[in-house]
Specification:
Blueprint: E1 7-21, E2 28-48, E3 55-57, H1 61-78, E4 83-89, H2 99-114, H3 121-127, H4 136-143, E5 146-149, E6 152-153, E7 180-184, E8 191-196, H5 203-213, H6 218-238, H7 241-254, H8 256-265, H9 267-278, E9 284-287, E10 293-297, H10 301-313, E11 317-323, E12 331-334
Parallel strand pairs: 3-4
Antiparallel strand pairs: 1-2, 1-12, 2-4, 2-5, 2-6, 5-7, 8-10, 8-11, 9-10
Helix pairs in contact: 1-2, 6-7
Length: 343
């Protein structure tokens, strides 16, 4: 059944605690621990375009090109109409929120509903070339909450040339996004998002950096696995706030790969992380993927807000806000066909 008036879609942002297995000897590579949050969030409206031309508005130039190409790919696959895509609330680009994958999946899912297609998000991610390193954005788009995926199984030739496989998603081999091995509702704990003055890592620079810092020592992958599966995951399940915060800080301040990500950012991020570790109202702090966004946990949000405002006053962060976990993932509703499109 097609949506005659169009489809409104909303999607959460992704915050990542850490990639897990990046050594040259393990049975599986990558894997990630991540969670979905309400803010920042994406909202968009997708309608059939009467003039036969797909037009995307409300996004930065790079995202506009990618969304247009994605809609045209799906249009050819499903014999669908051209579309008008109005993004009323975009996800910040290049900040550690999974903006590209989340945006493509959300709009692709809405376009599928417009066409009367029931879309499987993992299949959609594979069609659009996403999820080749991490299944976080795909899994969180479907389920929300907290998840851990097990990465991809390594073939026999992996051990001979691990750097041929340990690559950012854009440069990775074509594989389906990994499925979550852990998916849990995240407790109603305040999450403080901090936009630092760090820089984006992408494109060829990201590939070069990835190849420089991987593979990591096997014992470091094993230790990270332990922190995730015996630290983060059971603490979320048991709603054990103290154990959860201890695991978050252990990953942030001692995790081998996380330290490499923090080192890439340098003083712009290390100053914020160290300030968070020293602040009594902040119980744990993390860097989402390579950043530059950080996120923290607190049971004293008023005091933590005063602390964050001081960081902003000193120029250490650009912005901050509180949010909560999103335990639902992508949601869509049909638009009344008599209502005019947003402008």
């Amino acid at each position: 059944m097609t949506a005659r008036g169009g489809v409104r879609v909303s999607a959460p942002a992704r915050l990542s605690f850490t990639l897990i297995s990046l050594d040259g000897t393990s049975m599986r590579r990558n894997g990630i621990a991540a969670m979905a949050v309400d803010r920042p969030g994406l909202t968009a409206e997708v309608r059939a375009a009467a003039d036969g031309t797909t037009v995307v508005s409300g996004t930065a130039e790079e995202t506009t090109r990618e969304v247009t190409a994605a809609v045209e790919t799906l249009r050819g696959l499903w014999d669908g109409p051209a579309a008008r895509v109005d993004v009323t609330e975009p996800l910040p680009q290049h900040s550690g929120f999974g903006s590209k994958t989340n945006t493509l999946l959300a709009i692709g899912h809405a376009y599928g509903r417009l066409c009367g297609q029931k879309t499987d998000l993992r299949e959609l991610a594979q069609i659009l070339g996403r999820g080749r390193t991490s299944g976080a954005s795909t899994g969180l788009a479907e389920y929300g909450g907290f998840l851990v995926d097990g990465g991809h199984r390594n073939p026999p030739e992996f051990a001979r040339a691990p750097q041929d496989f340990l690559r950012p998603s854009r440069f990775a081999r074509e594989v389906a996004p990994p499925k979550p091995v852990v998916r849990l509702d995240f407790p109603d704990w305040p999450v403080l998002v901090l936009l630092t003055n760090g820089r984006h890592l992408g494109g060829q620079e990201e590939l070069d950096w990835f190849q420089k810092v991987t593979p990591i020592p096997p014992q470091e992958s094993w230790r990270t696995s332990h922190l995730v599966f015996m630290g983060l995951a059971p603490a979320v399940l048991e709603q054990d706030y103290e154990a959860f915060c201890a695991a978050v800080d252990e990953i942030t301040f001692t995790g081998h790969f996380k330290q490499a990500q923090i080192a890439f950012q340098g003083e712009a991020v290390t100053s914020v992380l160290e300030a968070g570790r020293a602040e009594p109202s902040v119980d744990a702090i993390a860097l989402s993927v390579t950043g530059p966004a950080c996120f923290a946990f607190t049971q004293r949000p008023e005091a933590a807000s005063v602390w964050a405002e001081e960081l902003r006053r000193r120029g250490l962060i650009r912005d901050f806000w509180f949010t909560k976990a999103n335990n639902d993932g992508i949601s869509t509703t049909d638009i009344d066909p008599t209502r005019k499109a947003v402008r």
